[in-house]
Design goal:
This is Radical SAM protein. By secondary structure, the protein is of the alpha/beta class. The chain is built from 14 helices and 12 strands. The longest helix is centred in the C-terminal third of the chain and has 22 residues.
Length: 382
């Protein structure tokens, strides 16, 4: 989001949580397995009344700021809406948010039936699918509520999508959560085989009080080594898909800008609207402690104009939190690349968010590897 006249800010991404429940029960999910159970108080699905208010308010904001933004259907699992309600949602959004505003869905892919795909095609909805690699990696954590692996169902959904000429152009990419004990070569090969034009990778969530899975100590570099291995594979591939985190970091080292949150110093404020219409902070803050994603005052799309919310001191404080860094970060040579990391990963009960990211050592390891690659390539070209 960007400031307007020092107060109001323009929206660039709206995370629309249309379902509070999920048909899978992934062991690492920050929504259901990081101690915050506020999802239990939410309606299972966003109602038609809330959908109407969301669409009208977002349309008003688009006309006010006159720059396009993206709406991401999220959850839980957003496709639990079903084809009929999904169509009503997309119709309402498109009526208020014509192109070039984007509508996207982040899904686990299990429910990608033809009737659902028909709706996504009709309203030009980009599709990103969560899959962690080959079955042996994916099914370790991405299980359903009966503890059965979901890989076969996810890949079936991907194949159903990519087999349709009218739908395959909507396939935006896949999103994988890193298991640092896995082989990056196996994961890269499996994700590339999906035909996705873009791969994105997330570290496991954690903080200074609850270290991420697979990280032995805060100084250990298990994730940094894994991503360095991925970097080697990526650079050696003559026909690679895009890998967002590697592209962004290399671009930053070379003096460019990042394109998504998590690295660099560009701000990407995310507006989150819950199934009951409540407006929250970035929901990844649940990783810090229960309620960390809640504003002190309850804001709602039903009662509060977005213009008032975006101009409020509460939103301004939340927006600036990304740049409120620990003292040691300000003097770090790698700050322009890592940006201090995700806010949620900075948390400790003792110091609040006044810490470097718990992945600091991993990020510095990967940045050093990238700088070495660039230096070698420059030497070869000289």
């Amino acid at each position: 989001m960007q400031a307007i006249d020092g107060q109001n800010r323009t929206v660039d991404t709206v995370l629309l949580k249309v379902a509070s429940r999920c048909n899978l029960d992934c062991g690492y999910c920050y929504v259901y397995h990081m101690g915050d159970d506020s999802w239990r108080t939410q309606p299972k699905l966003m109602s038609d009344e809330i959908i109407k208010h969301v669409a009208v308010n977002l349309g008003a904001q688009y006309r006010r700021q006159q720059t396009p933004f993206s709406v991401v259907l999220h959850g839980g699992e957003p496709l639990m809406l079903g084809a009929t309600r999904l169509a009503r949602l997309c119709e309402a959004l498109r009526a208020e948010l014509p192109h070039p505003c984007g509508i996207h869905v982040q899904t686990n892919g299990v429910l990608l039936a033809d009737a659902i795909i028909d709706v996504l095609v009709a309203y030009d909805v980009g599709i990103s699918i969560s899959i962690d690699g080959p079955a042996v990696v994916h099914d370790r954590f991405r299980t359903d509520h009966s503890n059965s692996g979901s890989h076969a169902r996810v890949t079936a959904g991907i194949e159903r999508l990519t087999s349709r000429p009218d739908a395959s152009p909507l396939f935006a990419g896949v999103l994988a959560v890193i298991d640092p004990s896995s082989d990056p070569a196996d994961v890269y090969a499996a994700l590339k085989a999906t035909g996705a034009p873009s791969l994105d990778f997330l570290v496991r969530d954690g903080n200074w009080d609850q270290l991420p899975f697979g990280k032995a100590t805060s100084d250990a570099v298990e994730y940094g080594r894994w991503l360095s291995g991925l970097l080697t594979l990526y650079l050696a591939d003559p026909a690679p898909p895009r890998v967002r985190i590697l592209d962004d970091m290399m671009r930053l080292i070379l003096g460019g800008q990042s394109q998504k949150e998590g690295v660099g110093n560009t701000d990407y404020g995310i507006l989150v609207i819950e199934p009951d219409g409540r407006i929250d902070k970035n929901d990844t803050l649940k990783v810090a402690h229960p309620g960390a994603d809640r504003f002190e005052k309850a804001w709602s799309i039903l009662t509060d104009p977005l213009e008032d919310f975006l101009a409020s001191p509460a939103f301004d404080h939340y927006y600036r939190q990304q740049r409120t860094l620990a003292d040691q970060c300000h003097n770090c040579a790698d700050l322009a690349i890592c940006g201090g990391g995700m806010v949620a990963h900075r948390w400790s009960a003792e110091r609040g968010f006044d810490n470097p990211t718990v992945f600091c050592a991993d990020q510095r390891h990967l940045i050093a590897e990238m700088r070495g690659v660039i230096a070698r390539m420059a030497a070869q070209a000289a």
